[in-house]
Amino acid sequence: MTTKLSCAMALGATFRPQDILAFHRRDPQAIAERVDAAALHKGLVWGDAAACLSIEFHRGRAQACLSVDGAVAEAGQPAFEAMVRRMLGLEQEVEAFEQRHRRHPQLGPLLARQAGLRVPLTATPFEALTWAITGQQISVGAAVALRRKLVMAANVRHSGGLLCYPQAPQVAGLSEATLRRAGFSATKAGALLALARGVMEGRLPLDDWMRTLPVEEIRTQLEALRGIGPWTVNYALLRGFGWLDGSLHGDAAVRRGLQALLGQPEQVSEAQARAWLAEFSPWRALVGAHLWAMQASDVY
């Protein structure tokens, strides 16, 4: 049995579909996400079922479809539409941000060149958290390869052929030995399993947090897990929850971008980056995304 949900969403004149597509094009082997010139096809777990999300971009609108290998609850349509809006960054107040800072001596010209930039989000906060754990202290290329091994270890496949990015039940069902064989360090394997079990046991209510966004509670609960620190939480708050005020001063690519933006010969320290980003609250993470994008889409 296959169930399909669909919706269409209007996009603003400055919407940048290539940012969305580039974010999901990171894995050249395309086992869980397939991207072409104007469309994304992504395998994911919807409820307990394998599903494939397709988003096609047209002039001024996006057309989305979710093909689920199974039944969909009555509340599925609004949940589906909310997921698509989050993934596309349509709830982000980028116009207000750009208007506020368009005259800034360093940031203003960058905003003019990258007008309309939004932060692409993952399908779920759990996906963002597992990606952040995976990417700790390694290059983006190495993180993409390790992420691929996690998807393969979970081995949930949609009828259309794509593997599905796992959610908490699938990760919790993996053993530490399986994760170690896939290339995860003991610390990362432990953090993934602790995260998944916390979600399964209701101690980490990611879906509720997504609706209420209690940032300090999220930070406290997640940082209590061994292997999860401030950088991981700030990245997940941005990519999974859409919180645009996390300070990404600990991110090496953000500091490289800031060094280039300031024309500074010496490297930017974490303290300097923190102080510079503070001026742009409540959009500090959005500034970080602009610093990522000025370099290349594959830094994030």
UniProtKB/TrEMBL annotation:
SUPFAM superfamilies: DNA-glycosylase
Keywords attached to this entry: DNA damage, DNA repair
Root EC class: hydrolase
GO molecular function: alkylated DNA binding; DNA-3-methyladenine glycosylase activity; DNA-7-methylguanine glycosylase activity
SMART domains in alphabetical order: AlkA_N, ENDO3c
Domain DNA-3-methyladenine glycosylase AlkA N-terminal: 8-124
Keyword DNA repair recorded: yes
Coiled coil: none
Any one Gene Ontology BP term: base-excision repair, AP site formation
Annotated GO CC locations: cytoplasm; protein-DNA complex
UniProt-listed Enzyme Commission number(s): 3.2.2.21
Domain HhH-GPD per the UniProt entry, residue ranges: 134-296
One Pfam family linked to the record: AlkA_N
Catalytically driven reaction(s): Hydrolysis of alkylated DNA, releasing 3-methyladenine, 3-methylguanine, 7-methylguanine and 7-methyladenine
Protein name, per record: DNA-3-methyladenine glycosylase II
Organism, as annotated: Geopseudomonas guangdongensis
Top-level taxonomy: Bacteria, Pseudomonadati, Pseudomonadota, Gammaproteobacteria, Pseudomonadales
